[in-house]
Design brief:
176 residues; mainly alpha; 5 helices; flat; membrane; Integral membrane protein
Amino acid sequence: MNFIKNIPVYIISADLLASVFFNIKDALLPTATPLPSDQLPVSPEFAFGWIQVGINGVMVLLILWAMWALLRLKKYGDAGETLAMTLPRAFASLIVLAFSVPATWLWFNALWDLLIHQRQTISFTSLRYLIVAGCLPYLLWLFLSVWYRQHRLRHQKQSALFSVQTKVPENFHSPD
């Protein structure tokens, strides 16, 4: 059942991996510039293409790691575990926020333009980008639900071993 609930995360992950694949393909098959007379692709565009592949690959790995960490936080929170906000968890949360908040803001602006100004700013020409853009606000909702669950678990009252209104059980031994 968790797989179905997290389909937007898997769609975003697949799109990120596809973009890395297309960047690698474009770097391996540079069609923009013709090869030099000696047929060696040593032009700066070839080198800069691989820099873009490297940077894009690292960015995708960071975002995938952050989404995976957020899904793990959700899993532990659903099981009732209170987790400390460690530095990696904080970085994962910030990465997910940096990735999802602008998309959510742009969706609200697009809806505002559509409802108030009767201007359609959403393009339906590229279905892939529209689907991924529609999934990005789910990451913000996922982050907020994880944060709320952890906040609620931290402030939840712990049940006592025995009731205050009854006498102490005879088999209870004090540590003194």
